[in-house]
Amino acid sequence: MAAGRAAARCGGGSGGRVAVYYQSITAFDPAKISAFGGIGDGGQPNGAAGTVYLQGPAREAGELIIDNNSLAVGSLTTPIPNPATGNIALTHLRLRRQAHVRLDSLLTLPGTLELNANAEFISTQRTVAGTISVTNNSVITHLPTTAAASFRVDLSAGTLTVDATSKIDVSGRGFLGGRQAGNPFVGRGMTIGFQAGSSGDAGGGYGGLGGGPSNPVYGNLADPNEPGSGGGASSGPAGNGGGLVRIAAQTLTLNGAILTNGEGGGCCDGGGGSGGGIRLDVGTLTGTGQIRANGQEGKDRANFGGGGGGGGRIAVYFQNMAGFNASAISALGGLGKGGLPNGQNGTVQLQQQVAMHSPASNESPVMRAEAGSTMDDSVRIAFADISR
Q1: What is the maximum alpha-carbon separation in the chain?
Q2: How far apart are CA 202 and CA 230, in angstroms?
Q3: Which residues face 330 on adjacent strands?
Q4: What is the pLDDT of residues 210-258, one digit of tens each?
Q5: Residue 6 vs residues 10, 75, 79, 329: alpha-carbon distances, Å
Q6: Can you give the residue ranges of every domain in the chain?
Q7: What is the pTM for the complete model shown?
Q8: φ, ψ for residue 199 (rounded to 5)?
Q9: CB-based contact 229:271 (threshold 8 Å)
């Protein structure tokens, strides 16, 4: 055990680091190896989880376990150092019981990325795994957009499962709304290219225009690859746009949610943020969940108001979607308040494909028609190559 501790009226210490290299571990329970954070005292924060690393014959490249024993902690509290190669090689990565992890390297897992029991995973690079499992109130998200940098959730897996309590959620993590901290344009929303966008109290636009004097729409409806825009605010703050999610998986079982919704306007007179972007390239999509890139409502007070954010952009390329309800996919505009217009709906493209081509580490996920297909020309048009 390498657990953190707390002194009186102080924050909890973080967990330490444990590494075990073995030839046989059958006579010992690995669950007894831990690096929990310590309990904060007197209202002070708890300590974050440390790391447990196991390597042996069944874990050829190593298994990293981050478990905080259900002690609540803030986001990003267990950063994983970026090795010199810029690529972390493990067999499995398991995040459990309030583990809140940030990773800034390409992650390649022949085994499993497991999130369980209020775990959070944030990566600024692509994650490639044989299996990704998100269960028991866990979440995958990305860093919020700043005045100069945007991010994405970028996942590639053989099998990806999100249970009904969990989600991939980057809502409100796109371009900044007017009068949000870090927005250099003050009352104007930020939009594509980190430029000034919606003005007044208009909603942000992406796949559809925001309500009011919105920024123009942008992006490719067949290949969403941008965050959503922030709303404008005369007094605000306005809502941020939604973020960006890109997923390639042979099988996606979605009983929870994939969300890139905009953020609603703030306390008063602020436009809603637009929905963000989602691109899914899947063999089989099934489940009872939802996929949303909706713009959000503006806010109003007295005789003023805020425009609704425009809808974002969603593109889903699939081989089999018979087990998923297409009506659970939306990019709707948000409601305008105080007499300002609603945001316009964004775009949703659903297209059945023949084959999925796994991307290289520096490429975006792509599904396209199989080369040398025996389909006749009339069918081949319907399954057009949509790679860049």
Answers
A1: 75
A2: 9
A3: 292
A4: 999 999 999 999 999 999 999 999 987 999 999 999 999 999 999 999 9
A5: 6, 20, 21, 47
A6: 142-382
A7: 0.90
A8: -120, 180
A9: no
